[in-house]
């Protein structure tokens, strides 16, 4: 098993984690936690596990000149990205958020070309177009976006969340080639937490830990351990072998995961549009990966 294949397995695992995260986060807000409280717990938990893991297993030092880069990535990838996502998801629906997240590979393609001069190939364009079309068919077949009331604001916040996450994927790429994954995430999570702390500290003081149910603790464990610690480790590992565009492309598979989970729960059926959408998405994956043979890394 070569490194590139392992990278694809890593980002596929991340996609599975993120696909489940929509439902887990929505189940915790707003009845159990406010968005600010959930952000506080997730980022604090992330800082603790990343710092402990890096301290124990990868005691690597960083150049002082790179701290500003870590701070910028922390602001984009942790503070703004996660705050906008949770505040947006709280007043919109997982379906709407999934549709908006389809835009991520397109945003990454644009930013990667403008910032790090990543080459735009026809294979990439065709693959992204196929994936976007397939994902939209899969999601829209079961529902439509809402642009009224609080849904509109929620959708705008999720869109901004995608913009900052796309920038994070592009800007973190040079650091990934220089430092170990855990070192990067230690500093990025730390700066992200510091930047967002003034906004979320007051709501965090109102959390009643003793009143949390077992289900709430399980949801928090999923978000901190899997959706933050494991997922970001896998993303940064994948970025060592793959371009930001390919990594972001796996967002298109999240609707497929959601559909599979729905079918497994007996809440849906297999239909021709769903089969067509899945075929378009996986054909797009092939097209995007095919461009790797056309240009060196």
Strand fraction equals under 5%
Shape descriptor = globular
Average of pLDDT: 83
SSE succession: HHHHHHHHHHHH
**Low-confidence runs:** 292-297
> How does the helix and strand content classify structurally?
mainly alpha
Per DSSP, the total helix count is 12
Sheet of most strands: none
**Could you estimate the helical fraction of the residues in percent?**
over 70%
Number of domains as seen in the coordinates: 1
Radius of gyration: 19 Å
Head-to-tail CA distance between termini: 19 Å
The total beta strand count reads 0
Summarize the structure.
The protein is mainly alpha-helical and 297 residues long. The protein contains 12 helices and no strands. The protein has helices at 3-28, 35-57, 67-91, 94-101, 104-115, 122-140, 150-176, 181-204, 214-239, 244-249, 254-264, 272-290.
Helices, strands, pairings?
Elements: H1 3-28, H2 35-57, H3 67-91, H4 94-101, H5 104-115, H6 122-140, H7 150-176, H8 181-204, H9 214-239, H10 244-249, H11 254-264, H12 272-290
Description:
The structure is a single chain. This protein is mostly helical and 297 residues long. The protein has one domain (3-290). The chain is 76% helix and 0% strand. The chain has helices at residues 3-28, 35-57, 67-91, 94-101, 104-115, 122-140, 150-176, 181-204, 214-239, 244-249, 254-264, 272-290. α4 packs across α7 (150-176) and α6 runs antiparallel to α12. The longest helix is centred in the middle third of the chain and has 27 residues, at 150-176.
